Amino acid sequence: MLEIKNLHVELEEEGKPILKGVDLTVETGKVHAIMGPNGSGKSTLSYVLAGREGYAVTEGSAVMEGVDLLDLETEERAAAGLFLAFQYPVEIPGVSNMTFLRTAVNAQRKARGEEEMSATDFLKEVRAKAASLQIDAEMLKRPVNMGFSGGEKKRNEILQMAMLAPKMCILDETDSGLDVDAMKLVAEGVNALRDAGRSFLVITHYQRLLDHIKPDVVHIMADGRIVKTGGPELALEVESNGYADILAEMA
Ligand code: ADP
Ligand code: MG
Ligand code: MG
Question: So what's the ipTM on this one?
Fold first, then answer.
């Protein structure tokens, strides 16, 4: 699904290197987790994959289903089936959540040469998916994320993901700032989307999210590289020992 090779990225303005040769392969249908200390470049990796401005790729590739994402515009990446749930979901004043979702879904369909979803079908689908994430009708009418609590924003990100049905889902610290109940709801939303044709890259600071979203593979990122890869037991090792042992081992 996704093959990242020797990816080097620096901040465009400062020329400061952030990613220093990331190698990562995510198979179709698998859930990979990335853990790692603060500042190791996890969010940068997700931004670069999604096409956010301000980052310069100086070396390497990120191929999704045979196409180098780095050659595509942001909206082309989304149309190709990439979705990023942000660590800090953006607020969009003046645009209702419902309108935003409908526009996003139809833009994606258009880019794929598909017909627009009818208003009736869209309403049916969005209501059903919102209900499963305990997002009420009133929240759908409000401007995107405006005045939403942390948990509501994260659930809203999962709703967007469910509506867009991407192939490659990247979740950047979707668990941060969530209480246990909200985190479970988010995890259930993600688990409901797990599918043989869909892959996930779950970036998280803590093992606890991975109790609910069981990953197939766990990677540790440090100083702009993937420094260790293992199974779910690696997340448990981090939980009990922190990153110090792993980093010492690498050094
Ligand atoms: P993580 O998500 O693993 O905590 P980040 O990708 O957010 O790490 O950050 C990696 C490093 O890059 C940090 O040292 C951070 O300060 C720096 N960085 C990332 N984006 C910017 C930016 N836009 N301006 C300045 N520094 C940045
Ligand atoms: Mg951080
Ligand atoms: Mg981050």
Answer: 0.94
